Amino acid sequence: MVIKKILFLLLLSGFALAENAYEKHCIPCHVSLPSSLQNMFMKYLAAYGGENNVKVGLRHYFRYPARDISVMPDLFIDRYGIKEPLEIDEEELREAINIYWEKYKVIGRLE
After folding, report:
1. pLDDT tens sequence across 85-98
2. Which of 31, 42, 62, 100 gives a 20 to 30 Å CA spacing to 52?
């Protein structure tokens, strides 16, 4: 149990030294969730369609999170709730979303 706590603290301290907005603001909150960021990306892509719509949808959701606009299933929301509004400046939010898009986009990766 002590080892788990130490590892968790080391993990959190690593996020404090994160190099970009995605690592700093996204990964720490999602590390304990059962659905990966890649799975969530696929849900956003299915719901919104293309790059511009996904990015606009994400920006809106991060500023004004609500159950009715979440792409996550009701069971997930019932268990983990709706996130709190993300309180970072617009530039960092755009950077995080752009990095997220580049990391998980499908276009250009299929042969």
Report:
1. 988 999 999 999 99
2. 31
Closest listed residue to residue 51, CA positions, set 104, 15, 4: 104
pLDDT score, position 98: 97
Q: Which residues contact 84 (CB under 8 A, 6 or more apart)?
A: 65
pLDDT-derived band at 7 (thresholds 50, 70, 90) equals low
Structure tokens at 74: 């009701």
Residue 89 to residue 57: CA distance in whole angstroms? 17
- When pLDDT is cut at 50, 70 and 90, the band that residue 9 belongs to is low
Please answer whether residues 37 and 22 qualify as being in contact, where contact means their C-beta atoms are separated by less than 8 angstroms. no
**Residue 71: both structure tokens together:** 């792409």
The C-alpha angle with vertex 33 and arms to 39 and 23, in degrees rounded to 5, equals: 80
36 three-state secondary structure: coil
